[in-house]
Amino acid sequence: MLKATLQILVMISLTSPIGASASTLYRCKDEFGHATYTNYKADNRKCTVLSHDETRSSRSASKSGGNTNGKASPADFPKVAGETQKNRDSDRRYILEQELAAEQKHLEEARKSLTEQPSGAGLNRHNPSVIVSHCMNATWMPCGARFPISNK
C-alpha cells in the first residue's frame, strides 16, 4: 500500500511541472460581489486581469522592479549621517549583547539549581494521587479545602 502510494506521488510530481505552466490570473466578481480568483475568464462575470502570462526569463533587466535611479528614498525623507547610524548600531549591539549575557547567566543558574535537586524532586506536585494523599493526611485544611476532610 505504501509502495503504491509512493509510486502515485512520484508520477504526480513528474507530470505536474507540465501542467503547472504560468497563465493569466483573473479576479472575477459574481452578481453578489463575491470575488473568485481563477486562470480563465468567465463570460458571465466581471473579470479583471491581475497578472499576465509572462515568464521571468523573458523580462528585460530594466523591468526587474528594482530602483534604477539609485535613490533609496525621496529627497525630502529625513537622512541620518553614516557615522551617527554606526554609533546607533553599535549602541544597539552593546545592549543586545548585555541582554544575551544576562539571559545566558540565568540559564546557567537554572541548570545548576536543576542539577542540585534530588532525583524526582518537584514531580510529586503534579501527581494527583500524591496531592490527594497529602491532603487526606493533613490535620489542617490544605489545598484550599473549604470543608473538613475526614479520614475514615
UniProtKB/TrEMBL annotation:
Keyword Signal: yes
Ranges of Polar residues composition bias in the record: 58-71
Statement: the UniProt record of this protein carries the keyword Signal: yes
Signal peptide: 1-22
Region of interest: Disordered: 51-101, 106-125
Comp. bias (Basic and acidic residues): 85-101
Keyword list, A-Z: Signal
Domain of life: Bacteria
Protein name, as recorded: DUF4124 domain-containing protein
